Amino acid sequence: MKRFRHALIFFASLVVLWQIICWVRNSPVLLPGPLVVARYLGEAIMDGTLGVATWITAKRLLIGYGIGCVIGLPLGLMTARSKFLGDTVGLLALGLQTLPSVCWVPLALLWFGQSEGAMLFVVVMGTLWSVLIAVDNGVRNLPPIYVRAAHTMGSSGAHTLLKVVLPASLPFVVSGMKQGWAFAWRSLMAAEIYVTILTGYGLGHLLHFGRELNAMEQVIGVMFVIIGIGLLADKILFSPWEHFMHRRWGTARE
Amino acid sequence: MSISDELENIVPAKLVVEDVSKSFAGRGRRVQALDNIRLEVGEGEFVCLVGPSGCGKSTLLNLIAGLDYPDSGRVLADGRPVVGPGRDRMVMFQEHALFPWLDVVGNVMFGLKLKPGLTRKDRREVARYYLKLVGLEKFMDSNVHELSGGMKQRVALARALAPNPRVLLMDEPFAALDAMTREQFYVDMQKIWAARRKTIILVTHNVREAVCLGDRVLIFSAHPGRIREEFKITLPRPRDFSSLELAALAGDITRALKSHTTAEAAA
Ligand SMILES: Nc1ncnc2c1ncn2[C@@H]1O[C@H](COP(=O)(O)OP(=O)(O)O)[C@@H](O)[C@H]1O
Ligand SMILES: [Mg+2]
User: Fold this and answer.
1) CA separation for the pair B96, B53 (Å, rounded)
2) Beta-carbon contacts of residue A29 (< 8 Å; ≥ 6 apart)
3) For chain B, percent helix, then strand, then coil, each to nearest 5?
4) What is the rounded distance in angstroms from the CA atom of residue B22 to the CA atom of residue A233?
5) Which of B49, B59, B202 has the most ligand 1 atoms within 8 A of CB, as the residue to mutate?
């Protein structure tokens, strides 16, 4: 409760500061005040534009992220356990992971056109390599004693993989999935801002149009929504895992 | 099978190690970890292996566990060659090797889940029985990291006992514990061994520990790993770790151990 109060006071002061700057500078075009932004958000929610854009963006993100994880997890397991795959696919992943995923946008547009396919491709590329490398890393750092202990208890093959190797690498896997999420989210926003996708306008487009129309309250309002989604995703997707790991492993809460 | 069958089913086994040799590729040269080991362990017998580190004790235990294979010779459990790990031979490692992603009871149930014919409720009951046996019934739902070193080894013991193995292989399980915890363990191990009648092979550095627990103490020497000498321990049970007789006998065995190690260093 005390922490909540601190946060509330802190953010309220920020808004007040913002309002004071607006009064002093008085240039609504460059920096609209909090009330103007709040009015825009209210209107955009009421007329549905914000809801639709959020839904389109979230759909791209979740589907692309899901595909990236579903491919990255087993691939990471495989590259860690096979020398051949580690030296080939593993190395490829390491290289591609250093590439900012927004660099995929031109190629994606060429291959898929201004479509959902291009957006999904960018998100998948952002997710896949981080997840793959994190799982690979987790499995390689696994204390061998866990697998040996499991073998003595009659576990083998797929059972060992699913019930021992995977959960044992959970701390690595979750941090990799978090990193993949961050990459995917950033690259999707960049793509939406700079490329008009004909199959639907997401939050990035809304932000872009705000700039074109010189409607700074729209730009700032959409930025708030983007921040909100980022925080929400962290709480919904990753917090439960981090809580679980904190409880079981006894690692420090961030 | 019912839970009472599961808990009453006490079947000792017999282990035979027949002319087993095992070497590893070391830096540049091969390390002969085990050289022609012969060993027979009777049903329900408690055998302790002592020797300097690097003499192949863990290697021998791994071969019996089926986690590794001999270069030559063979290991028989109950007359049948060991071809891999099996729930009839459970291992307790020096590191507790408990799974941090499971709670205490989850760890104990891990092996039971792979054992056919038990419902979830049965498994929990069996796990509870063994956790009670090691004195940790209250900690069923605790997380591993919340336990002390000694408690973790107790859970590891419960986990090893839970699938009701015929053989328990223990690789320096008490080495990392403080003296007080260890001595309590000696008392409990004797009780558990008497109650569950397992065949046990215990590897240890501690000669007094070996004398306190074992029916037989085997002295190993290194390079190549061989069994040098064997002592039958006939002290009455339960044995008191701090008794004078035990200390005297341990002294004799320590001297024998030293003579083998120095002879080997001189050679
Ligand atoms: N997996 C392995 N690879 C290479 N050398 C090994 C391996 N396991 C054991 N050794 C060697 O075999 C010898 C015996 O080891 P070990 O059985 O662990 O001894 P102990 O348990 O008696 O201390 C040592 O010299 C060790 O270095
Ligand atoms: Mg050892």
Assistant:
1) 19
2) A214, A216
3) 40, 25, 35
4) 54
5) B59
pLDDT at residue number A120:
92
Show me where the domains of chain B are located.
Answer: 13-99+168-266
CB of B216 within 8 Å of any CB in chain A?
no
DSSP tag of B163 = T
pLDDT for the residue B74: 93
Ligand 1 is surrounded, with C-beta below 6 A, by B 24, 26, 31, 33, 53-59
Measure Cα distances from A37 to A9, A12, A52, A210, A225 in Å: 20, 15, 19, 12, 11
User: Which of A154, A170, A250 lies nearest to residue B87, judging by beta carbons?
Assistant: A154
pLDDT digits (tens, 9 = 90+) for B204-254: 989 999 999 999 999 998 778 889 999 999 999 899 999 999 999 999 999
All structural domains of chain A, each given as residue ranges with its CATH number in brackets, are 38-250 (1.10.3720.10)
The band of B115, judged by pLDDT with boundaries at 50, 70 and 90, is confident
To the nearest whole number, what is the mean pLDDT of chain B? Answer: 90
The residue contributing the CA closest to ligand 1 atom 17 is B56
**Under-50 pLDDT residues of chain A:** 254
Nearest Cα residue to atom 24 of ligand 1: B54
A146: which chain B residues are within 8 Å (Cβ-Cβ)? 97, 99
* Residue of A146, A151, A153, A163 to mutate, interface with B, max B Cβ within 10 Å: A153
Q: What is the pLDDT of residue B265?
A: 63
Give me the residue from A146, A153, A159 closest to B163, CB to CB: A153
Cα(A209)–Cα(A218) distance, rounded to whole angstroms? Answer: 8
* Alpha-carbon Rg for chain A in angstroms: 22
Assign B105 a pLDDT band (cuts: 50, 70, 90).
Answer: very high
The ipTM estimated for the assembled molecules is 0.88
Q: How many CB atoms lie within 10 A of CB A69?
A: 22
Q: Which of B32, B50, B53, B58 to mutate to test the pocket of ligand 1 (most atoms within 8 A of CB)?
A: B58
CA of B172, closest atom in ligand 1: 21
Q: Does B102 touch chain A (CB under 8 A)?
A: yes
pLDDT in tens, B181-211: 899 999 999 999 988 889 999 999 899 999 9
Task: Give the fold, CATH level 3, of B13-99+168-266.
Answer: Rossmann fold (3.40.50)
Adjacency order of strands within the sheet including B80-81: B30-41, B15-25, B72-77, B80-81
Q: What residue type is B230 in one-letter code?
A: E
